[in-house]
Design goal:
Blueprint (H helix, E strand, L loop, with lengths): L1 H8 L1 H32 L2 H32 L2 H8 L1
Length: 87
Amino acid sequence: MELLASWFAKPLVKYGALALALLMIAGVVAWVLNNQYNKGEASGETKVIDAVQTDTITKTEKARTDKEKADEEVRKTPYDDRVDGLR
């Protein structure tokens, strides 16, 4: 028992054990965070992001076509009719 106690009393062994314990704690924290990240992916986060992006693209495209139609209508209308329409 004294041999074991004297062996653990050495600074190299003491600090090595401390470093090993800290490394194990860091590994557990990394594992837990990775597990949380994977649960987020499994919960459908990607599907929600894709749906939002698709909806945004659709609305942007519709707004662009509406603007093009309005611009074309303005170009077709003679200037005097456009000015008279503002009064």
